[in-house]
Amino acid sequence: MKVRNVLLVNAGSDADIVSVANDGTFPALGVVSLATVLRRDHPDVDVIAVDGQITPMAEIERLIADFDPDVLGVGVLATSYGNALRLAELGKETGAVTVFGNDQATAMGEQILRHREAVDYVCAADVGEFSLSALVSALDGERPIDTVPELLHRTPDGITHNRLPEIPAEEIKGGGGAFRTMVLDAIPVPDRTLMPDLNWSRYLDNYLNRYGELHEGDTITGVTTMNRARGCARVKSPCHFCGIMDLSLRFSSPEMFWHDVRAAQEQISASIFYEAFDSMSSSPRWVKAVVEAKPDDIGDPKFFVYTQAAETTPRLVELYERLGVYRVNMGLEAGDTRMLQVLKGPRDSLENNRRACSLFKEAGILIHGSLVLGGPGETAESLDNTVQFGRWLIDNEMMASLEAQPLYPDFGALTGKWLMNPDLARREAKERGFEILDEALLDLMPTKYGSTDLVDFDEVSKDWCKIFSRVPWDELIDATHMIRSYADRSGTVTGSGRMTQTTLGSS
């Protein structure tokens, strides 16, 4: 076949999934970045990128019919899997080659290909731009399909996973220094004009409706996402519920960072930037280098960044102020030191959470926080400590937005791996000092979830709770309601991901 046009869609959350506080306020950068590399490598291919989080499904269905894509690429999260399958079926009806990517596809790639004939390929790459470009070349007959990096596909012998380097060696630029090679400079600055103007105006409207009051009359002209560094300092010992597949630290050069900012200013008048680096606090040296490289004529862009309480210091906060950080996304997770150390590690504590929040408040930097209920060995006392901590955060005006939910054991995370490997769970329980409360149910988990591509969030969370939490799931839901309603009454934006509206009610 000859690929003439490609449609890239970030699938929107399924209808029964409760929204999170930032839904629809920042763009799905992945599909834009994919489109940018495709246009560069295949200039004769027509590429469109849309975000199902803000574009209604009916509009996307019409686009599929009218655009008649040769290739339909879909970004899939666990919370959008139903919609992604619907898009794949529509794509096959029009004769498109269908490709799934992003977190859910990476975690469940083999199961998806075993169960879903409407899905032709799964891209498991963390940096998927070059894999998708290589796939288009393979579909055009210019290279063998088994040379496409991190591609899962069907063969006569079964499902094959091409475990090849994601970024071609010729794309990796020099730099090195304190940050190793600047491998992410290989990813071009996204051409944000490849997403329809209507999408950008919807992001801006959503952001202003939800967070406009935070800016005290400042003129907000556009919002965007960027991703010029990846990974986390916890790479060797990640948080137990973190489902990010690759936590190795990788960077763009400071010059590329500001080149991306300038391009977004010019393309969509961006003034608010969500830097999706998994943990900006993991590399203060890189932040310092970015700050020192800031061009004099770049204006006053504002940044929303991921950060961690245990890594928050006065020096880091000062760097954030110089960079232009106005809000941080900080996983606080619990208000109980024992639970924090079980969920995250020995450096974490209630004291560190409080200290970090106070440092950011003193600096005038807003916080988007999140709490996870029902970790291993959760008790009524530890849960009450977390509820009280949530109230303390709100009473002391620490939170611009706050999310809370029972723990969901992502199958790409340690918690999910415990369910799939009961022997591993038992070893971890012995080493970490928590108890497995339902041994028989634990032994059923690999059979129940190991071969399916469809997982009910509430059900797997309930199973987790029965096995690992001393607090019943219904009481975790009650605590979630208490935190959310307390925040709502104070005017704090709230939300919960990966739970159904039946369980929590719509946001």
Automatic annotation (TrEMBL):
Record-linked Gene3D superfamilies: Aldolase class I, Cobalamin-binding domain
Every B12-binding domain range: 12-146
Keyword terms: Iron, Iron-sulfur, Metal-binding, S-adenosyl-L-methionine
InterPro entries: Aldolase_TIM, BchE-like, Cobalamin-bd, Elp3/MiaA/NifB-like_rSAM, rSAM, rSAM_sf
Cytoplasm listed as a keyword: no
CDD domains: Radical_SAM (cd01335)
Annotated ranges, domain Radical SAM core: 215-448
UniProt xrefs under PROSITE patterns: B12_BINDING, RADICAL_SAM
Cofactor (UniProt): [4Fe-4S] cluster
PANTHER family assigned: ANAEROBIC MAGNESIUM-PROTOPORPHYRIN IX MONOMETHYL ESTER CYCLASE-RELATED (PTHR43409), BLL1977 PROTEIN (PTHR43409:SF7)
Record protein name field: Radical SAM superfamily enzyme YgiQ, UPF0313 family
Higher taxonomy: Bacteria, Bacillati, Actinomycetota, Actinomycetes, Streptosporangiales
